[in-house]
Give the backbone structure.
Amino acid sequence: NLSSKLDKAFKTLKGQGRISDINVAATVKEIRKALVDADVNYKVAKTVTDKIRDEALGKEVLISVQPGQLLVKIVHEELTKLMGETKQDINIKGDPAIILIAGLQGSGKTTFSGKLANYLKKTGRNVLLVACDIYRPAAIDQLKVLGEQVGVEVYAEPENKNAVQIAKNAIQHAKNTNKKIVIVDTAGRLAIDEQMMREIAEVKKAIAPTETLFVVDSMTGQDAVNTAKTFNERLNFDGVVLTKLDGDSRGGAALSIRSVVEKPIKFISTGEKMEAIDLFYPDRMASRILGMGDVISLVEKAQQAFDEDEARRINQQIRKNQFNFDDFISQLEQIKKMGNIKDLVSMIPGVSKMMKDVEIDDDAFKPIEAIIRSMTKKERANPDMIDGSRRRRIAAGSGTSIQQVNNLMKQFGDMRKMMRSMSQMGSGKDALRKMK
Ligand code: GDP
Ligand code: MG
């Protein structure tokens, strides 16, 4: 029943206003595991989580948000920062702008070249695709099919076995035909080999691309880092394209690559269709890596929906020991405003701690609300004046029992005391603002 639910909830109302060593240690361990599971390089994961621990310790916590959730938010912000904070566009200045595509065989270079051509063409630019994979005749056909599909010309010299020469000829052709962007698709090997590295380095030197993009399969996990390192040493590329993110890969490679080679990820590829290309948004990838998108969005939702001024006013009331039934109802209303009560109730000041671990649905609040609504204005503002005869009247008016009214009064009194002592501890004073 309601009373035992509240009882149980109050037991969990032990001040947890600050992120302590203990809950940080456990959570940090969990986060590190989540990162490694998401294919983040172990060393990178350790550095990240050490940083996060230092950041989190002692940070003041909004009373409405549990420390664990705040910690996740800190982690999310840290990962976002590590991956470059904001999206980074490719450089397409130049006449023509030249984009060189490099990477291992099967990483998705040719597919991405088609997508990028499509993407840039849609911005109104005149694009040329160049087939520089001289080792597999099928590679030329593959690019031609994609070119046709997206309506972009494909330059190829099927008889020519000199990639550098083909690339140079293609640039000349682009100039002759007034193309503004040239995308050069190159050959790849199953593993890094010297001949391939030399060839692509020579192509790069010959055509001086505006932008060199390294394409890497996100499913290759830890290997991706080593490949990226080797390519970067030889090519000093400008950006990374992470492919096959439509699979189960959680994208940890993004974080590792970014940390190890310090080059921005610029695009992600999420399928075989020509439309399956996206700019890289560090914050979205951070959510994906954490696999905790729900928690994060809930925290953010709670922050958005919860009226800050009202929260501050209620905090004031608590401090002055004047928290009353009007404030209580106001909190309940805010909870409802936020939608799914089960998900959100754990984030609301006072009520959150009170209701923690309690089975909650909309109905759980009904008797409470009925009781409070049966109080007079004066009674709500001054709970102390509600004596025995008033309780009888309130019970009758709300269709509840005197027992229920008594219980609520008792719980409310306890809650007030608890809130007061919590607020004296200083938790969450201006934390709402701090978290923004
Ligand atoms: P390349 O050897 O680097 O040129 O790689 P390809 O572009 O030929 O791609 C190799 C394979 O991966 C092909 O079967 C593509 O259809 C597939 N592929 C490429 N990008 C993606 C992607 O983002 N998602 C999925 N699921 N498959 C992809
Ligand atoms: Mg290819």
